[in-house]
Amino acid sequence: MFNLKIIFSSILRKNKPTKNWKEAFNESYGDISLDMWRILHLKYLLHGKKATKWAYTELQKMKFLEHVPKRILREWAKRCVLSNERETISCEEIRIYFPGLTKKDAKYLAASVSNTCRTFWDIQQAKECDAKFYLWKSSACPTHKRMNNIICPIDEPVSKSIVKDDMITGDSYPGEGYRCLCILSPLLSKLDLPNGKLRVYMDGEIHRMGRKQFYQLDPLDE
């Protein structure tokens, strides 16, 4: 089966002196065969049931979708995780359940549904790279700006008491929620860590620690 760790590991070795994983991936992107994307599509099919179940569960946490029938949420979840199309959910579909919305706002809501569902793949790919933690990047997201550069475990969503998003009823990951612009950035190298004292989410709380203390949790590659 296709494994992103192989690609990321080779990229990091190739660009090790100066690049973090994202910069290295972008620089090497053109060297990756288009066959990779065909394999990714196969992977979507292989993980489809798990992805759909996860996405459906997450959509039920979104307060702004509470009036949408569950069978519709389940259908949207399935379509979103199995497609990369930008407008998997149409504005017209959204306005059936939100008739007062403008076309622009319906488009925002449809994108929010798609992004929430597709967060599954961000988590899945980070795990395939053997990432134990990720960096919550939210500099472009007004709703979750306080979460920027917090280090979180990949296997555990962040508590609602920490995220403080009134539109989400439970724990969540970056990328979930109404008009969320956050990014889940896996930590694979020491170069991926933010500057200064680290803020690490563990056991429902934010802990401040230095790099040496964090390396006891995750040594990371150089």
Strand portion, in percent? 5-15%
Report the radius of gyration as a whole number of Å.
Answer: 18 Å
Instruction: Please give the alpha-carbon distance between the first and last residues.
Output: 27 Å
Reported for the largest beta sheet, the result is: 5 strands, mixed
Give the number of helices. Answer: 9
Structural class: alpha+beta
The percent range for helix content is 40-55%
The parts where pLDDT drops under 50 for at least 5 residues are 5-19, 28-32
- Global geometry: globular
Q: Biggest sheet: strands side by side, in what order?
A: 3-1-2-4-5
Number of strands: 5
Average pLDDT taken over every residue: 86
Summarize the entry for a quick read.
The chain has 222 residues and is of the alpha+beta class. 45% of the residues lie in helices and 10% in strands.
Report on the structure:
The protein has 222 residues and is an alpha+beta fold. It has nine helices and five strands, in the order αααααααββαβββα. It has a five-stranded mixed β-sheet with strand order 3-1-2-4-5. Helix 4 crosses helix 5 and helix 6 (91-97) packs across helix 7 (103-128). The longest helix has 26 residues, at 103-128. It is globular. The model is unreliable at 5-19 and 28-32 (pLDDT under 50).
SSE topology:
Layout: H1 4-14, H2 21-28, H3 35-46, H4 48-59, H5 70-81, H6 91-97, H7 103-128, E1 133-137, E2 150-153, H8 160-163, E3 183-186, E4 198-202, E5 205-209, H9 211-217
Parallel strand pairs: 2-4
Antiparallel strand pairs: 1-2, 1-3, 4-5
Helix pairs in contact: 1-2, 4-5, 4-7, 5-7, 6-7
